[in-house]
Write a structure and sequence with these properties.
The structure is a single chain. By secondary structure, the protein is an alpha/beta fold. The termini are far apart. The radius of gyration is 22 Å and the shape is globular. It has two domains: 74 residues, no CATH class; 198 residues, Sandwich (Protocatechuate 3,4-Dioxygenase, subunit A). The protein contains seven helices and twelve strands. The strands form three sheets. Strands 1, 4, 10, 11 and 12 form a five-stranded mixed beta sheet that branches. Strands 3-2-7-8-9 form a five-stranded mixed beta sheet, with no helix packed on it. Strands 5-6 form a two-stranded antiparallel sheet.
């Protein structure tokens, strides 16, 4: 092996042979192989490589450890998050499809009663309801639905300091029949943050930063696999060009407008409102 470039790669791979953990050894050797192949393919100048290192440095520096997670945003916008999701959540027929977790989840949000309004900020009233079921159609009682979405200004609590941290967030539970109900506001499309390295990368590659309107769900129940997914609003102009590639057709639902009626009043809605019905299907833990 006379080529000095090949000798460099071979030397690093050989050094990794001493890694005790076989899984880590496989990961590192694959990473080195593909990363070195990438460098050979594009042949970056030293200045370009330093620019790449600076980009990663700035990506880490803008992360705040709680709400702003620029590396998740980078993974999302490169489609890597959805690829990892597809590999790790191969569903059997009937299971609700998963999608990206996103960078704006906050743990420890309040427990909420069935139909409780989680919105403090204004917006068009909405009721999202349905059932949580097992793959065979049996209801799952007391499943936890951890829910979060943006306000109508397109920002999440925590991201927007003007909002109370608990705004448009909360943990709901299914009843004995698997039914759940969430009072909220109609979700809106919004741009992901563009004031950091990821935003600059999107601009440089001619891509828009927008996500279609959606509500996040993380649903868990004993004996079942935790489901991380969204409910997307049908008709949104960004459904076919989501900046993070997260849309799946099975997760798109209609938000139908109703005049004030018996269903709305059951949950304290005395005005016209929008109704979305969606049944989540969880799969058993292997």
């Amino acid at each position: 092996m006379s080529n000095p470039e090949d000798r460099i790669t071979a030397a690093v791979l050989e050094r990794m042979q001493s890694t005790p953990d076989p899984r880590l050894r496989r990961i590192m050797q694959s990473l080195i192989t593909h990363l070195h192949a990438f460098v050979r393919d594009v042949e970056p100048t030293e200045q370009e490589w330093f620019t790449a290192i600076r980009f990663l440095t700035e990506t880490g520096q803008i992360c705040d450890g709680k709400v702003r997670q620029e590396f998740i945003l980078l993974s999302d916008t490169l489609g890597v998050s959805m690829l990892v999701d597809a590999i790790n959540h191969r569903k059997s027929a009937g299971g609700t499809e998963s999608t990206v977790f996103g960078p704006f989840y906050i743990a420890g949000m309040p427990e909420r009663a069935t139909g409780e309004d989680m919105a403090v900020t204004p917006g068009d009233a909405a009721l999202i309801h349905g059932r949580v079921l097992g793959a065979g159609g049996a209801p799952i009682a007391n499943a936890t639905l951890d829910v979060w979405q943006t306000a109508t200004n397109g920002m999440y609590s925590g991201q927007d300091k003007a909002q109370p941290e608990t705004n448009l967030r909360g943990k709901y539970h299914s009843d004995a029949q698997g039914a759940y109900a969430i009072r909220t506001v109609v979700p809106v499309s919004y741009p992901i943050p563009t004031d950091g390295p990821v935003g600059k990368l999107l601009a440089a590659t001619g891509r828009h930063p927008n996500r279609p309107a959606h509500v996040h769900f993380m649903i868990s129940a004993p004996g079942y696999q935790t489901l991380v997914t969204h409910v997307f609003r049908s008709g949104d102009i960004y459904l076919d060009s989501d900046a993070v590639f997260g849309v799946k057709q099975s997760l798109v639902v209609d938000f139908e407008k109703h005049a004030a009626d018996v269903l709305g009043r059951r949950y304290g809605i005395e005005t016209p409102y929008y109704e979305a019905r969606y049944d989540f299907v969880l799969e058993r833990t292997p």
